[in-house]
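User: I'm curious whether this sequence folds into something compact or stays loose and floppy. Could you predict its structure so I can see for myself?
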Amino acid sequence: MVCTDAMGDRGIEHVLDIYEDVLAAHPRADHRLRIEHCCAVTPAILERLKRSGIVCSSAAGFAWDLGDAHIDNRGAAAMKNMWPHRAMIDAGVMAPAHSDAPVCTVNPFAAMSALVNRKTRSGRSLDSSQAITVYEALCAYTRLGAWAGREEAIKGDLGLGKLADLCLLDRDPFEIPEETLADVVVTKTLVGGDVMFDRATTKAA
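Assistant: Here's the prediction. I'll summarize afterward.
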């Protein structure tokens, strides 16, 4: 498994050139070659990701915290190709998401909000045509994250025999208005079944 960082469309294209050459010379099923960040996914890049089975490890946290800067520098029309999870999911491209903390907030629900509502922290539009569901956003942060690291047998969901790594939330993300998704708070975290964080007994930073 190889992970290579590329964020803009030209950088992603260069990495795809290398990955495609490697796979042509050394074909391998289920290679899970990954492009980290992989933010600018044009239709042409999307087709290449799909064709070669490359994983788009999406820096979704950028959409929330740095989305305004992307709009200012690339233009509003380009946002359709930035973190386009709707198009990637529909095309069958595996696209786990991450925050890139500490560059962006470690709160995964902020990035999930950007993917679901397609809005930056300040409320500017990231093109609603690429909006995904709350369930799809949660999967990007759980099941797909585990799969991308070849840990799906032990992580990613609460299946029988898997690690008891989980968190308790202050509200049900499926029952709240989608616009408030970024406000979800973790109240308790368990790792291996042991409580590692409890908001009730932890002094706020």
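Summary: The chain is about 35% helix and 15% strand. The longest strand covers residues 186-191.
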